Amino acid sequence: MTTIKKRRGSISRRTWIKSLAATAIGIALLSNGAYAAVGKPEKWELKFGFIKLTDMVPLAIAYEKGYFEDEGLYVTLEAQANWKVLFDRVVSGELDGAHMLAAMPVGAATGVITKTDIVTPFTLSYNGAAITVSNSVWAEIKKTVPMENGKPKHPISAAALKPVLESYKAAGKPFNLAMTFPVGTHNYIERYWLAAGGINPGLYAPEKGDNSGSIGAEALLSVVPPPQMVPTMEAGTTVGYCVGEPWNQQAVTKGLGVPVMTSENIWVDGADKVFGVTKAFADKNPNTTIRTVKALIRASAWLDANNNGNRPEAVKIISRPAYVGADEKVIANSMTGTFEFEKGDKRPIPDFNKFFRGQYGIPYYSDAVWWMTQMRRWGNIAEQKPDSWYMDMAKKAYRPDIYVTAAKELIAEGKMKASDFPDLDTQTFVKAPQKGPLDGIEYDGTKPNAYLEKFAIGLKGNQKS
């Protein structure tokens, strides 16, 4: 495992501990004469996990820019092998917190993943995923894709896959796509795309002991760790995948595949990654948790400041082997506001990676509910639940109250302005209804069952797998 233990150029640990002890006597007096509302951290030596994806970058920036240190936190960042290992190590307490798939905390709240409660006080990133297919699959679907100004018109519907699926079926070959974790963003984004194109990605039936997700499937989905997506497709084990960056752009750079869908075309500004801790950790260490969120808010604001002007510096930082470990040019393809499809077909997508702008890192209840609708749609949630249940689970897992305390503290300290945030006192933490760009189906976070009824493929009402 790759571990980042100390920020370059930071004070020595001994000096740092002495300074912490000095400030621990009382709560620091702020420059404006007010006192900080949040006390000293209950636990100041912390280990946070992450997966090698560009959207772990708020953690890297909070570390490299000294924002954790400003909060009296001595943080170690450690890369994990895959999402399951990462999640299990948070549950066991080996990690104090981690970069997580946005569906994980609600997967825990609903019991779909574990009986341990996981909470998120902060959304690390919005959008940021893509679906890539192999060159051989692309060569076939490109024949039916409409052209616009001499280039394929994006986003590309999964309906274009139907002739390819038929040819695979006729040849007796499985059409195998990859995703990163069963109760995860990439699985559900890929399923949404397939179903919107009239292709059934299959159902889960946990009550029957079938967690393959392949009941009735026309295309098979299997788990592959993010850094292994490109090698697995190159080996021919899969014909495509859904993952975050830089692993879609890596396929383009290597000439192995072509992205056909970016996730903001499915769900605009949907929470993709969050920062997660166990509820037990947050309850035992409330000041530590708030201080961690303060550092992450500052990091995310820095990432989106000046019209993404800081992104090139961020790219250099996370290209290091200890973080993402990919070529700077590959990471920059998506992180700096563009996205490359076929080689040379680079298009502006300024919000492909979004961290603070417009959404502020707030853990919105409606984002949590959206992920649960997908769990229900594909059978991870086996039975119909009332709308109130979805909101109850969202409030159990997503904790904007912690975020608000952290944001107000930053404002009181003068590190951020009130105008940097929405009105935190009137927030319902439910976004306004929006139509999905791909299929025009409107999502209202207060009406999950009505939303599910609108889909032709997937469970709804009292249906079971």
Strand content: 15-25%
Q: Just name the CATH architecture of the largest domain.
A: 3-Layer(aba) Sandwich
Mean pLDDT: 92
The chain-level structural class is: alpha+beta
Helicity range of the residues? 25-40%
Under CATH, the topology of the largest domain can be stated as D-Maltodextrin-Binding Protein, domain 2
Rg, nearest Å: 22 Å
- Please tell me what the overall shape is: globular
Overview of this structure, please?
The structure is a single chain. The protein is an alpha+beta fold and 465 residues long. The protein has 2 domains: 3-126 and 271-420, D-Maltodextrin-Binding Protein, domain 2 (3-Layer(aba) Sandwich); 130-269, D-Maltodextrin-Binding Protein, domain 2 (3-Layer(aba) Sandwich). Helices cover 37% and strands 19% of the residues. The chain contains 18 helices and 20 strands. The strands form 6 sheets. The chain has a 7-stranded mixed beta sheet, with helices on both faces. A 5-stranded mixed beta sheet has the order 12-9-13-6-14, sandwiched between helices. A hairpin with a 6-residue loop joins β19 and β20 (442-443). α2 crosses α12 (286-308) and α15 (365-377) packs across α16. The chain is globular and about 65 Å long. It starts with a strand and ends in a 12-residue tail after the last helix. Mean pLDDT is 92; it is low at 7-35.
